Task: structure prediction
Amino acid sequence: MAHVDDDPTGEVTELLQHLIRNGCVNDGTVESGHESRSADLIADYLHGVGLDVERYEPVPGRASIVARRQGRDPNAPALMLMGHTDVVPFNAEGWRHDPLGGELIDGEVWGRGAVDMLNLTASMAVATKRLAASGWNPDGDLVYFAVADEEARGVHGAEWLVANERDALACDYVVTEFGGMPQPHPDGPRLPVAVAEKGPQWATLRIKGTPGHGSQPFRTDNAVVKAAEVVRRLAEYRPRTQITDVWKGFVNGLGLPPEWAEVLLDAEKLRPFLAEHSDLSFARLAHACTHTTISPNVVHGGVKTNVIPDLTEIEVDIRTMPGERTADVRAMLEDALGDLADHVDIVHIIDDPSSESPLGTPLWDSIARACSALVPGSQPVPMLMVGATDARFFRRMGVTAYGFGLFSSKIGFGEFSTMFHGHDERVDQESLRLSTALWEVVARDLLGG
Result:
């Protein structure tokens, strides 16, 4: 497999720094995000190398970029490299360095989005430009998609483009976030590839009470007090353990000690094992990969300190396992609430089920060959993505979509995973170099030329 020999590290580092400094912070409102800043940056960066670059902006400031390197064979497969340009809000007081500074410190780029997922968005752009500039003439199309609004369900990004500009996104394979953190194995690193993801079926619960004067709380019908018990019950609820084929592939692929593997694949033994496991990051991941999770995260209630509240709403983050739909979510909530179910209105559940792509595809094979070439002895293993990505929109169109990247071992998996939506996000330059090389090798292998 041919590849470009010169080192892209400086170029991808600089582009990532600019993306971080653009501060495309998405708080879920239509006025936030400002992804047009990074759309302008990327369009300018990709100019002049023979790419067809289009800009899509469904509402002011929420722009996405689609760049295509046309292949010579219309019947050949097309590959999309997709990265989002928005980032989640942050509390700067919890950071050691400026969240929007994009500083390079000891070989690491710091800033909001460095992990989720501007490192991949930048490396994909650099690889696309390098391939186009090299005179590469592939059989199939290479598409680069820098998309807005991923962090707020894709309403002004991938969801909108799939509904309104589907032809612009035409492809057979997609790679986006997240995977590629090396897991040690006696025969060489194992590299997780997200072939499926859980369904973000968020719910809103409404609890009613009776208003009254706050100076006389005895035997009142206080909606906040009832909501506190609802939150407690949701937090203590234990959905059933599910051992899926993807989880089996992940556990078996890691080459764990037999006594560990046996427990991790046993629905009866898994939860007690994780409750006592010393590696908290692994325990959280393993639990999320094998259970529907219910997390009450936002509460709105009350109007004034001296008024007993008559209404409280709870926003619940629910992540469903493969095959579960809205009816299953409703049944779990009612089961968790017990005798309080009649006092709680489930006013809204987002129908956004889990999605999955098959293994054994040409893209999987190209990833495996690229990993072997770039990290000798390594092999990909399937993984369930416990968060949501824009891959789900493509899977529902019949497109194979994986989450991947290629990272060094400088930042361990546990520390890396805590940086998603957390403090002190950063990525090392060796990971930026590896990911850029990965995209070039995969594109050449899958698309020919």
About this structure: Residues 199-237+292-353 form a domain with the Alpha-Beta Plaits fold (CATH 3.30.70.360).
